[in-house]
Design goal:
Number of helices: 2
Order of helices and strands: EHEEHEEE
Distance between the termini: 31 Å
Number of strands: 6
Strand order of the largest sheet: 3-2-1-4-5-6
Number of domains: 1
Strand content: 35-45%
Low-confidence stretches: none
Oligomer: single chain
Radius of gyration: 13 Å
Mean pLDDT: 89
């Protein structure tokens, strides 16, 4: 169990700190426990979530045979307890060894 600590568009995520207006670039969400998820699509369930909403986050896949120090590509499911909405997304726009 954790809480939503930040919501951004996907491109805002690529340029931390930038005041970038990038609607339609996808969704990104960060949780208080440090888990992060991102999508090239605009995820309605994330858009309808609010900062501080309680969320159950579960790690459901860890990639294998990744290059050293490349820990991207973990797959997480998330359930917003307030809205009962669910989504499944990766922690990076690219898996380990990718772009």
């Amino acid at each position: 169990m954790t809480q939503i600590s930040a919501k951004r568009t996907r491109l805002q995520t690529l340029y931390f700190g930038a005041k970038l207006d990038s609607p339609g670039s996808g969704s990104a969400v960060e949780f208080a426990n440090g888990v992060f998820q991102v999508s090239y699509e605009t995820e309605r369930a994330i858009e309808e979530s609010s900062i501080d909403d309680p969320v159950k986050v579960c790690l459901i896949h860890v990639p294998k045979d990744c290059p050293p120090n490349d820990d991207r590509g973990k797959l997480y499911s998330a359930t917003n307890i307030r809205t009962n909405a669910q989504w499944v997304l990766y922690d990076s726009a690219h898996g380990c060894g990718g772009a």
